[in-house]
Amino acid sequence: MNADKIFSLQDGEQYLTFSVRKMPPAQLERWLLRANALLMQDAAMPEDGYLSACRTLAKGGPLALLRNGYSAEAQALGDELLACCSRRLDNMDVHCTPDTVDGFIQEVTTLFTLKSEALKRNLDFLPDGDTPPQGA
User: Fold this and answer.
1) With 80 as the cut, is the pLDDT of residue 50 above it?
2) For labeling, which of 58, 70, 79, 123 is most exposed (least CB within 10 Å)?
3) Residue 64 has what pLDDT?
4) CA dist 43 → 14, 37, 72, 88 (Å)
5) Cβ count within 10 A of residue 33
């Protein structure tokens, strides 16, 4: 099921509601390839490969992208996660971008939470245990 995930959180002195949607499959694949390349740039690919690298990313959250220091690529990947989010306001959704969020988000922790929720939503295909999904 690809329904948006809806959640609310406290942001400074306000309460905000957001929806998080999944990236289309081809976009997510490109995003994961770029993220894993960034994470593994100075390390060998784990023995069990791609899914293990995805699990590392899932455990570390969006800040794991900064493992090898700040880069424009890490920023771009984080911005793509943010683009999966919208603020729900009455009967409309306000798409989140680096430019729009400064108009309504007060705390940087809210921004980290949004990106983390987008990452979780997009990596929900990962198994909870060590067994890879069928066909992987």
Assistant:
1) no
2) 70
3) 82
4) 42, 10, 20, 40
5) 12
**126 in Cβ contact with 51 (< 8 Å):** yes
Whole-number Cα distances in Å, 17 to 84, 87, 114, 127:
14, 6, 11, 28
Greater model confidence, 51 or 27? 27
d(CA 37, CA 15): 36
C-alpha 26: how far from chain center? 15
CA distance 62 to 44: 21
**Helix/strand/coil percent split, the chain, to 5:** 45, 15, 40
Q: Which residues pair with 7 in a beta bridge?
A: 18
Tell me the β-bridge partners of 88.
Answer: 17, 93
DSSP-based three-state secondary structure for 45: coil
Q: What pTM, to 2 d.p., does this model score?
A: 0.83
